[in-house]
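quick one, 288 residues, struct below
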Amino acid sequence: MLRSLVGSEMCIRDRNGIVEARNPVSQFTNGQVEMPATRYCHSAVVFEGRMYVYAGKCGGRNSNRRLEDLWCFDFDTNRWTECEQAGQKPAPRSAHTAVTHSRQMIMFGGRSSEGECCDDLYTYAYDTGLWAKIDTRSSYFGRARHSFVVHNSAIVVFGGWNGKKKLNDLFYYHLDSNQCESVRSREEQHNPSRRECHVAAMCKNVMVVFGGRHQQDFKEDTCELNLGPRSLKEECRNWLANATGSTVRIVNMPSRLEQYVVNWRLSETDARTVAMPHGRVTQFPPTH
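---
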């Protein structure tokens, strides 16, 4: 079942494609409906059947009004509730990123009410409603409009905007050791291009980045970065790919299998671009 919110209405699509519209139930306080204010450039994460919407920008394009409220939408009751916030609350912001990790939300970066790019990192505990600022003991690059994922116990940040230019750098923050690591590739000219307002998601051990923009160049490419140990199947394909040249024919190998191996070798070459029906897929080059 697929659910989506459109304005104040929620659309639910079942497996047969039938759409049912429902109006979310909201709390009434002193005769007024309690719902989040209109906003954009906010974050939204999911935890135990609830969606948590945090901060964002309110007003027109030239407005400097940033929000700092946190709302929870319960998918079972269709009810909005404003969450309690205590502890070290972050300053109002927009264009930040947030993810769920364990029983907490992790939030990074964004743009402040003064228009500055933030470089701070916070956690919000779902069980207690407490914010805590993480002392990274490292120099984060302030940024907004970036992508942000968690893989195992590491936060991975890519691209964005630092207030002066678009970025295409990549760095990790290791939650267990509280250390920041800037990752530089051996062939930086083959990195995915500079971009902002893109999205990223984890698929097993692979971070997939899609879209974004750079000035008037609106992206439609897909970039992949393998963050974890490869599976046995992947290792076997790599072994075959490395053992087979594009001009070498293996005796008794079926032609379709040979073509499959050759294609895999090409796709594993650093930062090769493979034609796709709707854009292209670029692999991040090796890092050190």
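The mean pLDDT is 79.
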